[in-house]
Write a structure and sequence with these properties.
This protein has 309 residues and is mostly beta strands. It has one helix at residues 283-288; strands at 2-8, 11-17, 21-26, 32-38, 43-44, 71-74, 81-82, 92-93, 105-109, 112-118, 124-132, 137-146, 152-153, 157-163, 169-171, 178-184, 193-195, 198-200, 206-208, 219-225, 232-237, 243-248, 255-265, 268-276, 294-295, 300-308. The longest helix has 6 residues, at 283-288.
């Protein structure tokens, strides 16, 4: 395995690479995974933007007006809202969280890449340790440190924007039988419960939501699976035989979000796969549904994530 410094567009980057995969990260902004390539097939799994200059946004900016590609950490919220509890009651939670727009510090230690960022409006330190696994995997270990004297409630979601193909099959754990709609181009109401995977389209026709349809559908649907998963897993089976498996620690990341974008948003045909600590895109709304993830005062919260191709 090799770790080297490089350039992604106009940004300094760090590349983790072996004979099978190439993963590229930029420390600023977001400490994000910009690219994940299967070297054997020459295939890029992460959504790329055609612009040659990275589309920056300032802190507290609008996520979709930035680069909006690859894999970003959404923390401590997805939708902009206000924190509900003292001592931060009424403090704004930025669109798609704080950390995607911030510079992360980094260091390379042997075969691992360590990155971390400090909160702006809240007193936390978020750290992640990244390495390649044996063969064809990429591993993240996260540690969230609460530096305050109060418990801190949050939402973390892994915001993977993955290139798709017509006929791609989305294989989820067997306990994913009911989903909740939170974003819909077909007129579903927010919070509407639907069966998975058989659903009705805008013309009331039954279809399988776990198989990507034609880009001519020009639709998008986002769901959460509100039950706590026994096993954190999502596997994408491409028609030509490619496989991508996303695994996560269901003890601390017990939920999964999925946005199927069939050429309905921003001219993209892709999947958003989002392992998450709570559902519904906002910690305050998640709280109303009895879902809370928090790091105790002066405490830590840990989770892990792995991608295999």
């Amino acid at each position: 395995m090799d770790i080297s410094l490089s350039k992604y567009k106009n940004k300094n980057s760090i590349v983790l690479e072996n004979s099978k995969i190439r993963a590229e990260f930029i420390p600023s902004p977001g400490g994000k995974l910009t690219s994940l390539i299967d070297k054997r097939r020459g295939y890029e799994y992460m959504v790329q933007r055609p612009n040659g200059i990275y589309r920056d946004q300032p802190f507290d900016g609008i996520y979709t007006e930035g680069e909006c590609s690859g894999f970003d950490d959404m923390f401590p919220t997805i939708d902009a809202c206000e924190y509900q509890l003292p001592p931060w009651k009424g403090v704004k939670m930025s669109d798609h969280g704080e950390v995607w727009s911030l510079p992360w510090t980094y260091r390379i230690l042997g075969n691992t890449l360590e990155m971390e960022v400090k909160g702006i409006r809240y007193s936390y330190l978020l750290k992640k340790i990244i390495s390649l696994t044996e063969g064809n995997g990429l591993q993240w270990t996260y540690k969230l440190f609460n530096n305050s004297e109060s418990d801190f409630e949050f939402l973390w979601a892994g915001h993977f924007m993955i290139n798709a193909a017509e006929g791609l099959q989305i294989e989820l754990p067997p306990d994913c039988k009911e989903a909740v709609s939170v974003l819909s181009a077909s007129g579903r109401e927010y919070g509407e419960k639907v069966d998975w995977p058989l659903q009705k389209d805008k013309n009331k026709k039954i279809y399988r939501a776990d198989i990507m349809r034609s880009p001519s559908e020009k639709g998008f649907e986002k769901f959460y699976f509100p039950n706590k998963l026994e096993k954190g897993c999502c596997r994408l089976i491409y028609p030509d035989g490619k496989l991508l498996t996303l695994s996560f620690s269901s003890e601390t990341v017990p939920h999964l979000g999925l946005l199927v974008n069939e050429n309905g948003w921003d001219g993209l045909y892709n999947l958003f796969v989002e392992p998450c600590t709570v559902c519904f895109d906002r910690p305050d709304i998640a709280r109303r549904y009895g879902q809370i993830s928090k790091v105790n005062a002066r405490g830590t919260y840990t989770w892990s994530l792995q991608v295999n191709i």
